[in-house]
Design goal:
186 residues; alpha+beta; five-stranded antiparallel β-sheet; 5 strands
Length: 186
Amino acid sequence: MGNNFQFLVNKVGATLDDAIELLNQASIDFKLFWQSRDNEGCYVTSQIAIKNFDYIINEIVRERDALSLSANAQYAQDYRDILDVHIGEVDENITPQDFQDLTIQPGNARIRVGKITKPISLNKLLNKMKHRIPNCLNFRIENGDHILVIGADAFLRQPECIVEFKVEKFCSESQKISDLFKSNAS
């Protein structure tokens, strides 16, 4: 009979709006699959989510990097304001054991209790997601929220770290950026 989900694994949005919608839906579906212990469904929706995360991040970063070329100062400021929104928490004082602990048990990931964290902006999260450690990604479902927890490599004078954020918050802030793109284009 085969894998009923396999055709969806390569599903990536053709536009930023599509990718955000697919990521949001993948997160909703993932929570349902996780609760029903459907490992195949979890795997497929995870693959869809990661591909759409990457698409969203690349589009937002490409525009961010071109902001200095924008003739529209208000657009550039509005864009930066969204990028500065607090979207999660980061722990930059980590050990190799922290990375190992992150992936031991799927569905129970969190920055270790008692660790000192600081807020992370959408802008910094984009960089952390681009430099994530592929096998250092986990999650938890808490109060109905799908919370992603990732390990990121050091880069550009930034230390290795662990970041956690709500997928829904990432989608809503990304949608604000997409809406800003469209308003600037018209």
